[in-house]
Amino acid sequence: MAGPLSGITIVDVTTNISGPSLTMILADLGAEIIKIERPVTGDDSRGMGPFWEGEGVYFLHINRNKKSVVIDLKKDDGRKIVYDLVEKADVFVENFRYKKAEKMGLGYEKLKEINPAIVYCSLSAYGQDGPLRERSGYDAIAQADSGIIGINGAEGSEIARVPVSVLDQGSAMWGAIGIISALFHKEKTGEGQLVTTSLYETGVFWVGYHMLSWLATGKEPKKNGAGHTAFAPYGAFYASDAPVMIGISNNSLFSRLCKVLGKAEWITDTRYETNPKRIENRENLRVAIENILQSKTADEWVKLLAEAGVPSSKVKKISEVVGDEQAEAIKMWERVAHSNIEGFKLPRLPFELSMSPAEIKQAPPKLGENSKDILKKIGYDEAKIEELLNEKIVQTIEDKAQTR
Is 381 annotated in the active site? Predict the structure, then answer.
Protein backbone atom coordinates (compact mmCIF):
# COMPACT_ATOMS: atom_id res chain seq x y z
CA MET A 1 0.00 0.00 0.00
CA ALA A 2 1.37 3.42 -0.96
CA GLY A 3 2.07 5.82 1.90
CA PRO A 4 0.56 9.32 2.10
CA LEU A 5 3.77 10.88 0.73
CA SER A 6 4.04 8.47 -2.18
CA GLY A 7 5.18 10.38 -5.27
CA ILE A 8 7.17 12.96 -3.26
CA THR A 9 10.90 13.03 -4.04
CA ILE A 10 13.31 14.37 -1.41
CA VAL A 11 16.99 15.17 -1.90
CA ASP A 12 18.68 14.62 1.46
CA VAL A 13 22.21 15.89 2.18
CA THR A 14 21.94 15.48 5.96
CA THR A 15 24.23 13.51 8.25
CA ASN A 16 24.49 12.37 11.87
CA ILE A 17 21.16 12.08 13.76
CA SER A 18 18.80 15.05 13.39
CA GLY A 19 18.51 15.35 9.60
CA PRO A 20 18.46 11.62 8.86
CA SER A 21 15.78 11.18 11.55
CA LEU A 22 13.68 13.81 9.77
CA THR A 23 13.98 12.13 6.38
CA MET A 24 13.36 8.71 7.97
CA ILE A 25 9.92 9.93 9.07
CA LEU A 26 9.12 11.09 5.54
CA ALA A 27 10.56 7.89 4.05
CA ASP A 28 8.34 5.68 6.20
CA LEU A 29 5.38 7.77 5.02
CA GLY A 30 6.19 6.87 1.43
CA ALA A 31 8.47 9.62 0.12
CA GLU A 32 11.43 8.69 -2.08
CA ILE A 33 14.57 9.75 -0.21
CA ILE A 34 17.71 10.24 -2.31
CA LYS A 35 20.39 10.30 0.37
CA ILE A 36 23.54 12.10 -0.81
CA GLU A 37 26.64 10.87 1.02
CA ARG A 38 30.30 11.87 0.89
CA PRO A 39 32.79 9.50 -0.77
CA VAL A 40 34.54 6.75 1.21
CA THR A 41 33.02 7.37 4.68
CA GLY A 42 29.47 8.41 3.89
CA ASP A 43 27.14 9.62 6.62
CA ASP A 44 28.99 10.10 9.93
CA SER A 45 26.51 7.81 11.66
CA ARG A 46 27.80 4.84 9.63
CA GLY A 47 30.83 4.95 11.92
CA MET A 48 28.95 5.32 15.19
CA GLY A 49 29.17 2.14 17.25
CA PRO A 50 28.36 -0.26 18.64
CA PHE A 51 28.24 -2.26 15.44
CA TRP A 52 25.89 -5.05 14.41
CA GLU A 53 27.55 -7.29 11.84
CA GLY A 54 29.72 -4.35 10.82
CA GLU A 55 26.85 -1.84 10.61
CA GLY A 56 26.63 1.14 12.98
CA VAL A 57 23.43 0.90 15.02
CA TYR A 58 22.84 4.67 14.85
CA PHE A 59 22.80 4.47 11.05
CA LEU A 60 20.63 1.34 11.04
CA HIS A 61 17.99 2.99 13.21
CA ILE A 62 17.30 6.09 11.12
CA ASN A 63 18.18 5.36 7.49
CA ARG A 64 15.73 2.70 6.40
CA ASN A 65 13.67 3.21 3.21
CA LYS A 66 16.35 5.44 1.62
CA LYS A 67 18.51 5.33 -1.50
CA SER A 68 22.23 6.03 -1.09
CA VAL A 69 24.03 8.06 -3.76
CA VAL A 70 27.67 8.99 -3.21
CA ILE A 71 28.64 12.37 -4.68
CA ASP A 72 31.66 14.60 -4.07
CA LEU A 73 29.94 17.94 -3.41
CA LYS A 74 33.25 19.78 -3.41
CA LYS A 75 33.48 19.37 -7.18
CA ASP A 76 31.47 21.32 -9.75
CA ASP A 77 30.28 18.18 -11.53
CA GLY A 78 29.13 16.81 -8.19
CA ARG A 79 27.05 19.88 -7.45
CA LYS A 80 25.70 19.72 -11.01
CA ILE A 81 24.27 16.27 -10.23
CA VAL A 82 22.51 17.70 -7.15
CA TYR A 83 21.11 20.54 -9.26
CA ASP A 84 19.76 17.99 -11.74
CA LEU A 85 18.15 16.07 -8.88
CA VAL A 86 16.67 19.23 -7.35
CA GLU A 87 15.14 20.23 -10.68
CA LYS A 88 12.87 17.18 -10.49
CA ALA A 89 12.49 17.00 -6.68
CA ASP A 90 9.82 18.28 -4.31
CA VAL A 91 11.94 18.77 -1.18
CA PHE A 92 15.58 19.43 -0.26
CA VAL A 93 16.83 18.87 3.30
CA GLU A 94 20.16 19.91 4.85
CA ASN A 95 21.54 20.16 8.39
CA PHE A 96 24.81 22.00 7.76
CA ARG A 97 26.22 24.72 9.98
CA TYR A 98 24.92 28.23 9.36
CA LYS A 99 25.57 29.40 5.76
CA LYS A 100 27.64 26.32 4.83
CA ALA A 101 24.98 25.30 2.31
CA GLU A 102 25.27 28.73 0.66
CA LYS A 103 29.07 28.42 0.48
CA MET A 104 28.66 25.01 -1.18
CA GLY A 105 26.23 26.42 -3.75
CA LEU A 106 23.32 24.57 -2.13
CA GLY A 107 21.53 27.42 -0.36
CA TYR A 108 17.81 28.09 -0.66
CA GLU A 109 18.11 31.03 -3.04
CA LYS A 110 20.31 29.06 -5.43
CA LEU A 111 18.09 25.97 -5.45
CA LYS A 112 14.97 28.13 -5.79
CA GLU A 113 16.42 29.46 -9.06
CA ILE A 114 16.61 25.87 -10.31
CA ASN A 115 13.21 24.82 -8.95
CA PRO A 116 10.98 27.71 -7.79
CA ALA A 117 8.52 25.27 -6.22
CA ILE A 118 11.11 23.51 -4.07
CA VAL A 119 10.37 23.06 -0.36
CA TYR A 120 13.75 23.63 1.31
CA CYS A 121 14.33 22.57 4.92
CA SER A 122 17.29 23.74 6.98
CA LEU A 123 17.74 21.99 10.33
CA SER A 124 20.45 23.65 12.41
CA ALA A 125 21.77 23.72 15.95
CA TYR A 126 20.65 27.23 16.96
CA GLY A 127 18.45 28.64 14.22
CA GLN A 128 18.98 31.25 11.51
CA ASP A 129 19.38 34.36 13.69
CA GLY A 130 20.99 35.47 16.94
CA PRO A 131 24.52 35.42 18.38
CA LEU A 132 24.75 31.60 18.44
CA ARG A 133 23.54 30.91 14.91
CA GLU A 134 27.03 30.13 13.57
CA ARG A 135 27.86 27.60 16.28
CA SER A 136 27.82 23.90 15.60
CA GLY A 137 26.04 21.87 18.21
CA TYR A 138 25.17 18.36 19.23
CA ASP A 139 22.14 17.14 21.14
CA ALA A 140 23.84 17.33 24.54
CA ILE A 141 25.12 20.86 23.87
CA ALA A 142 21.64 22.07 22.98
CA GLN A 143 20.25 20.26 26.05
CA ALA A 144 22.65 22.32 28.17
CA ASP A 145 21.90 25.59 26.38
CA SER A 146 18.12 25.19 26.54
CA GLY A 147 18.05 24.35 30.25
CA ILE A 148 17.18 20.67 29.99
CA ILE A 149 20.36 19.41 31.64
CA GLY A 150 19.97 22.08 34.32
CA ILE A 151 16.72 20.50 35.53
CA ASN A 152 17.58 16.88 34.77
CA GLY A 153 18.35 14.40 37.56
CA ALA A 154 17.98 14.74 41.30
CA GLU A 155 19.25 17.50 43.60
CA GLY A 156 22.90 16.87 44.46
CA SER A 157 23.31 14.26 41.74
CA GLU A 158 25.94 14.30 39.02
CA ILE A 159 25.05 16.51 36.04
CA ALA A 160 23.49 14.32 33.36
CA ARG A 161 22.00 14.80 29.93
CA VAL A 162 18.81 13.06 28.92
CA PRO A 163 20.39 9.84 27.58
CA VAL A 164 18.44 9.74 24.31
CA SER A 165 18.80 12.12 21.38
CA VAL A 166 15.71 14.03 22.47
CA LEU A 167 16.57 17.25 20.62
CA ASP A 168 17.98 15.61 17.50
CA GLN A 169 14.84 13.56 17.06
CA GLY A 170 12.56 16.27 18.43
CA SER A 171 13.82 18.78 15.87
CA ALA A 172 13.40 16.06 13.23
CA MET A 173 9.71 15.85 14.16
CA TRP A 174 9.25 19.62 13.85
CA GLY A 175 11.11 19.61 10.55
CA ALA A 176 8.89 16.84 9.22
CA ILE A 177 5.75 18.69 10.34
CA GLY A 178 7.09 21.85 8.69
CA ILE A 179 7.82 20.07 5.41
CA ILE A 180 4.43 18.35 5.30
CA SER A 181 2.76 21.71 6.05
CA ALA A 182 4.78 23.36 3.26
CA LEU A 183 3.81 20.58 0.84
CA PHE A 184 0.15 21.09 1.74
CA HIS A 185 0.57 24.83 1.07
CA LYS A 186 2.30 24.04 -2.21
CA GLU A 187 -0.55 21.77 -3.27
CA LYS A 188 -2.99 24.65 -2.77
CA THR A 189 -0.88 27.50 -4.18
CA GLY A 190 1.97 26.02 -6.22
CA GLU A 191 4.46 27.90 -4.03
CA GLY A 192 7.55 26.36 -2.50
CA GLN A 193 9.10 27.83 0.64
CA LEU A 194 11.88 27.73 3.22
CA VAL A 195 11.32 25.63 6.35
CA THR A 196 13.67 26.09 9.30
CA THR A 197 13.97 24.47 12.72
CA SER A 198 16.74 23.74 15.20
CA LEU A 199 17.80 21.72 18.21
CA TYR A 200 17.81 24.84 20.39
CA GLU A 201 14.28 25.89 19.42
CA THR A 202 13.10 22.38 20.23
CA GLY A 203 14.78 22.44 23.63
CA VAL A 204 13.33 25.83 24.56
CA PHE A 205 9.88 24.63 23.53
CA TRP A 206 10.23 21.39 25.54
CA VAL A 207 11.02 23.28 28.78
CA GLY A 208 8.10 25.66 28.21
CA TYR A 209 6.12 25.10 31.38
CA HIS A 210 9.27 25.25 33.51
CA MET A 211 9.99 28.70 32.05
CA LEU A 212 6.40 29.78 32.69
CA SER A 213 6.74 28.54 36.27
CA TRP A 214 9.79 30.74 36.74
CA LEU A 215 8.00 33.72 35.20
CA ALA A 216 5.02 33.12 37.47
CA THR A 217 6.93 32.56 40.73
CA GLY A 218 10.44 33.94 40.27
CA LYS A 219 11.73 30.64 41.65
CA GLU A 220 14.26 28.54 39.78
CA PRO A 221 12.77 25.11 39.01
CA LYS A 222 14.27 22.36 41.16
CA LYS A 223 15.65 19.05 40.01
CA ASN A 224 13.16 16.33 40.82
CA GLY A 225 14.85 13.13 39.72
CA ALA A 226 11.96 10.85 38.77
CA GLY A 227 9.55 13.08 40.69
CA HIS A 228 7.29 15.96 39.70
CA THR A 229 7.27 19.55 40.97
CA ALA A 230 3.49 19.83 40.99
CA PHE A 231 2.41 16.48 42.45
CA ALA A 232 3.09 14.05 45.31
CA PRO A 233 3.51 11.15 45.64
CA TYR A 234 4.96 11.05 42.15
CA GLY A 235 8.18 9.27 41.20
CA ALA A 236 10.15 6.08 41.57
CA PHE A 237 9.70 4.07 44.77
CA TYR A 238 11.77 0.97 45.52
CA ALA A 239 10.04 -2.38 45.84
CA SER A 240 11.92 -5.48 46.98
CA ASP A 241 13.68 -6.03 43.65
CA ALA A 242 13.28 -2.92 41.46
CA PRO A 243 11.82 0.60 41.44
CA VAL A 244 8.15 1.22 40.69
CA MET A 245 7.10 4.48 39.03
CA ILE A 246 3.88 5.80 40.58
CA GLY A 247 2.02 8.91 39.42
CA ILE A 248 -0.58 10.53 41.71
CA SER A 249 -2.06 13.78 40.39
CA ASN A 250 -5.30 14.11 42.38
CA ASN A 251 -7.08 13.06 45.57
CA SER A 252 -9.02 10.28 43.89
CA LEU A 253 -5.84 8.53 42.77
CA PHE A 254 -4.28 9.07 46.19
CA SER A 255 -7.26 7.38 47.83
CA ARG A 256 -6.87 4.37 45.55
CA LEU A 257 -3.14 4.18 46.30
CA CYS A 258 -3.78 4.32 50.05
CA LYS A 259 -6.22 1.41 49.83
CA VAL A 260 -3.77 -0.73 47.83
CA LEU A 261 -1.06 -0.01 50.40
CA GLY A 262 -3.37 -0.81 53.32
CA LYS A 263 -3.17 2.76 54.58
CA ALA A 264 -6.74 4.07 54.28
CA GLU A 265 -6.05 6.35 57.25
CA TRP A 266 -3.72 8.45 55.07
CA ILE A 267 -6.75 9.68 53.12
CA THR A 268 -7.83 11.89 56.04
CA ASP A 269 -4.38 12.44 57.54
CA THR A 270 -3.85 16.22 57.76
CA ARG A 271 -0.34 15.79 56.34
CA TYR A 272 -1.64 14.18 53.15
CA GLU A 273 -5.29 15.21 52.66
CA THR A 274 -4.52 17.65 49.82
CA ASN A 275 -1.91 17.72 47.08
CA PRO A 276 -0.21 20.89 48.47
CA LYS A 277 0.06 19.13 51.86
CA ARG A 278 1.47 16.02 50.21
CA ILE A 279 4.05 18.14 48.38
CA GLU A 280 5.02 19.74 51.70
CA ASN A 281 5.46 16.30 53.26
CA ARG A 282 6.65 14.43 50.18
CA GLU A 283 9.81 13.02 51.82
CA ASN A 284 7.95 11.51 54.77
CA LEU A 285 5.43 10.06 52.33
CA ARG A 286 8.16 8.63 50.11
CA VAL A 287 9.84 6.82 53.01
CA ALA A 288 6.53 5.47 54.27
CA ILE A 289 5.53 4.17 50.80
CA GLU A 290 8.90 2.52 50.22
CA ASN A 291 8.75 0.77 53.60
CA ILE A 292 5.50 -0.86 52.47
CA LEU A 293 6.69 -1.64 48.94
CA GLN A 294 9.63 -3.66 50.30
CA SER A 295 7.22 -6.50 51.07
CA LYS A 296 6.62 -7.42 47.40
CA THR A 297 8.32 -7.36 44.00
CA ALA A 298 7.84 -4.54 41.52
CA ASP A 299 5.77 -6.76 39.23
CA GLU A 300 3.48 -7.77 42.10
CA TRP A 301 2.89 -4.16 43.10
CA VAL A 302 2.29 -2.99 39.53
CA LYS A 303 -0.37 -5.68 39.10
CA LEU A 304 -2.16 -4.57 42.30
CA LEU A 305 -1.88 -0.88 41.44
CA ALA A 306 -3.12 -1.40 37.89
CA GLU A 307 -6.13 -3.35 39.15
CA ALA A 308 -6.97 -0.37 41.37
CA GLY A 309 -6.57 2.12 38.52
CA VAL A 310 -3.39 3.70 39.89
CA PRO A 311 -0.93 4.82 37.14
CA SER A 312 2.26 2.83 37.66
CA SER A 313 5.02 0.87 35.97
CA LYS A 314 8.11 -1.04 36.85
CA VAL A 315 11.20 1.00 35.93
CA LYS A 316 12.36 -1.27 33.12
CA LYS A 317 15.74 -1.97 31.66
CA ILE A 318 16.16 -1.62 27.89
CA SER A 319 16.52 -5.40 27.62
CA GLU A 320 13.06 -5.77 29.16
CA VAL A 321 11.50 -3.29 26.75
CA VAL A 322 12.85 -5.09 23.65
CA GLY A 323 10.75 -8.16 24.36
CA ASP A 324 7.92 -6.37 26.15
CA GLU A 325 4.47 -7.90 25.71
CA GLN A 326 2.87 -4.48 25.18
CA ALA A 327 5.40 -3.50 22.49
CA GLU A 328 4.71 -6.79 20.73
CA ALA A 329 0.93 -6.36 21.02
CA ILE A 330 0.96 -2.94 19.33
CA LYS A 331 3.47 -4.19 16.73
CA MET A 332 6.18 -1.64 17.55
CA TRP A 333 8.77 -3.84 15.81
CA GLU A 334 8.90 -4.52 12.08
CA ARG A 335 11.09 -7.27 10.68
CA VAL A 336 13.12 -6.13 7.67
CA ALA A 337 15.21 -8.20 5.26
CA HIS A 338 18.91 -7.37 5.64
CA SER A 339 21.81 -8.77 3.66
CA ASN A 340 24.01 -9.67 6.63
CA ILE A 341 21.93 -9.31 9.81
CA GLU A 342 19.70 -12.26 10.58
CA GLY A 343 16.42 -11.47 12.32
CA PHE A 344 16.85 -7.74 11.74
CA LYS A 345 14.02 -5.59 13.07
CA LEU A 346 13.40 -1.89 13.65
CA PRO A 347 10.89 0.13 15.72
CA ARG A 348 8.14 1.64 13.58
CA LEU A 349 7.04 5.28 13.70
CA PRO A 350 4.99 5.83 16.88
CA PHE A 351 1.67 6.55 15.17
CA GLU A 352 -0.65 4.64 12.88
CA LEU A 353 -2.77 5.62 9.87
CA SER A 354 -5.70 3.34 9.13
CA MET A 355 -5.90 4.05 5.39
CA SER A 356 -2.34 4.93 4.34
CA PRO A 357 0.01 3.42 6.94
CA ALA A 358 3.69 4.17 7.32
CA GLU A 359 5.86 1.20 6.45
CA ILE A 360 9.45 0.02 6.68
CA LYS A 361 9.94 -1.51 3.25
CA GLN A 362 13.72 -1.89 3.12
CA ALA A 363 16.77 -1.87 5.34
CA PRO A 364 19.23 1.05 5.33
CA PRO A 365 21.26 1.12 2.09
CA LYS A 366 24.89 0.25 1.62
CA LEU A 367 27.09 3.26 0.84
CA GLY A 368 26.55 4.19 -2.80
CA GLU A 369 24.14 1.32 -3.37
CA ASN A 370 21.81 3.37 -5.57
CA SER A 371 24.24 5.77 -7.26
CA LYS A 372 23.96 4.31 -10.76
CA ASP A 373 20.21 3.81 -10.69
CA ILE A 374 19.51 7.38 -9.57
CA LEU A 375 21.89 8.87 -12.16
CA LYS A 376 20.21 6.85 -14.90
CA LYS A 377 16.81 7.97 -13.66
CA ILE A 378 17.70 11.64 -14.18
CA GLY A 379 19.10 11.03 -17.68
CA TYR A 380 22.80 10.22 -17.27
CA ASP A 381 23.97 7.59 -19.78
CA GLU A 382 26.47 4.79 -19.08
CA ALA A 383 29.39 6.70 -20.59
CA LYS A 384 28.78 9.76 -18.40
CA ILE A 385 28.37 7.62 -15.30
CA GLU A 386 31.65 5.82 -15.99
CA GLU A 387 33.35 9.19 -16.47
CA LEU A 388 32.03 10.40 -13.11
CA LEU A 389 33.12 7.15 -11.45
CA ASN A 390 36.62 7.37 -12.92
CA GLU A 391 36.97 10.97 -11.76
CA LYS A 392 35.73 9.87 -8.28
CA ILE A 393 32.93 12.42 -8.39
CA VAL A 394 30.49 9.63 -7.67
CA GLN A 395 30.96 6.27 -5.98
CA THR A 396 29.02 3.03 -6.08
CA ILE A 397 29.31 -0.43 -4.57
CA GLU A 398 30.60 -3.01 -7.00
CA ASP A 399 30.19 -6.07 -4.79
CA LYS A 400 26.70 -7.17 -5.80
CA ALA A 401 26.63 -9.64 -2.90
CA GLN A 402 26.31 -6.67 -0.56
CA THR A 403 23.19 -5.31 -2.21
CA ARG A 404 19.71 -6.30 -1.16
Answer: no
